[in-house]
């Protein structure tokens, strides 16, 4: 049981808590950016579905029967037949997307590993707190064993004739009636 006194659960918790909050905030940012990406992806899929369902052929016979100027219809038909879409080299974009994906996956794995470590530390701290003896059951000998510097500080203060703890009155006030 004395090994529990050597650990400082409040210091461990105060050291871990800011990191946990930082991870939690960054996780919220990651979740919100992921939700924004999913929304954009859903919008793009809807637009693609709408455009893919529309007919892609042009009925030039209909336009020849409606328009008097047949030369315009012939020219439009020739332009459409001669049209060749430009091809773009998207390998650099795909490479950038792959790099981004690798970074995102590695960051997610690192975050998961950090959260696992922090969670284990928090569970150990919680177990330490749950197993610790109540404050009322502690003796001065237990405190001296857990923190030998306290005994040495008290010994030094007594040898110098100091009977008050520096900063005590500022923090807790003066309890003297007289």
TrEMBL record:
Report the InterPro entries cross-referenced here.
ATP_synth_F0_dsu_mt (IPR008689), ATP_synth_F0_dsu_sf_mt (IPR036228)
Q: Which ranges of the sequence are coiled-coil? A: 105-132
Is Nucleotide-binding one of the keywords UniProt gives this record? no
Q: Which Gene3D superfamilies match?
A: 6.10.280.70
Q: Which domain of life is it from?
A: Eukaryota
Listed under GO biological process in this entry are: proton motive force-driven ATP synthesis
Q: Which cellular component terms (GO) are annotated to the entry?
A: mitochondrial inner membrane; proton-transporting ATP synthase complex
Kindly list the GO molecular function terms attached to this UniProt entry.
proton transmembrane transporter activity
Compartments, record wording? Mitochondrion inner membrane
Major site of localization recorded for this protein:
mitochondrion
What keywords were assigned to this record?
CF(0), Coiled coil, Hydrogen ion transport, Ion transport, Membrane, Mitochondrion, Mitochondrion inner membrane, Transport
Q: What does this protein do?
A: Mitochondrial membrane ATP synthase (F(1)F(0) ATP synthase or Complex V) produces ATP from ADP in the presence of a proton gradient across the membrane which is generated by electron transport complexes of the respiratory chain. F-type ATPases consist of two structural domains, F(1) - containing the extramembraneous catalytic core, and F(0) - containing the membrane proton channel, linked together by a central stalk and a peripheral stalk. During catalysis, ATP synthesis in the catalytic domain of F(1) is coupled via a rotary mechanism of the central stalk subunits to proton translocation.
Which family is annotated?
Belongs to the ATPase d subunit family.
- Tell me the protein's name: ATP synthase subunit d, mitochondrial
Organism for this UniProt entry: Serendipita indica (strain DSM 11827)
Q: Highest lineage ranks of the organism?
A: Eukaryota, Fungi, Dikarya, Basidiomycota, Agaricomycotina
